Amino acid sequence: MVNTQRAPRQPSNLQDLLRYAVEVGSRGQDGAQGDVVALNENNRGFLMNALNSMMVNVTEELATIIKTLKENTGQKESCIEALDNLSDYVCTIDYANDFVRMGGLTALQLLLEGNDDELQWRAAETIADIVQNNPFSQNFIIQTDFLSLLLALIKHSHNTTVQVKCLYAVSCLVRENKECLAEFIKKDGFSVLLHCIQSKQEKLMIKSCFLISCLSSNNNEVRSILHSMGIVEQMCMLIDIDDAFDTEINEHLLSALSSLIHESPNAQALCQQEPLNLMLKLNYIKEKHAGDEVYHKEIEYANLILKQVFDTDTVEVDEEYQDR
Length: 324
Fold this sequence. Notes:
disordered C terminus, mainly alpha, ARM-like, Hsp70-binding protein 1
């Protein structure tokens, strides 16, 4: 029997290309409709040209972005668009490293040193994306003055978003890199974290506690530095049983505190100081949130600290706290 099925019309543009692919694909999947139509040389050439036209030269794109950021620091919308485009590339480590090699950090530094809060936090967020899990870019950036700039913005900026994004960038830089951590310590970075914890800004407190917890875990040098700064006592005092029940602050304070006092009798002894009321606070938290799954991590940390410091996981709550 002669096959009277007509071959698909040859594509002449991208819309035709899509239609052509769908028609040919459906024929290939349904044997009842006839044989698969093979691509001839003309169709194959059109397909390859169409695909090539959709390919982006990333190096050229990065160069354009860098030029835009350097030459348009006063044109906010142009910079935001360039940073948005850049974010599509730097999530890939190879492209992030290309951006660094091409001098892109200079463009981001101009934004960080500028006076526009939004451009500052967007630049800091981009730096975080570049250095996260990326040893090459981490080691490159630590040779510059970026860490000092980020720490200064965390401490002195009046915009919380700028502070939070800069802290995020610092965290991505130092968490898994010993050389970067050493530079962070040299630049008194822990004093900046202490400043954040004392700020009463929830996001800053949470991110600072998270970073302290990560850095102090299984690192005696970091613990020793933080112990000498009085941060153990600070955290005990900041545990809040009045206002923080609907926030994550207590959970992160307790997480960081449990890391700081782990296998450290001296730090555990500091927690036992009567004016800190740590035992009563922990048990009040446990009693207040008993049976509430939302607070299971907070209760878990409270039990851990009670066991480490007071060799117990329960105690009667004082009447003063019962009445709160």
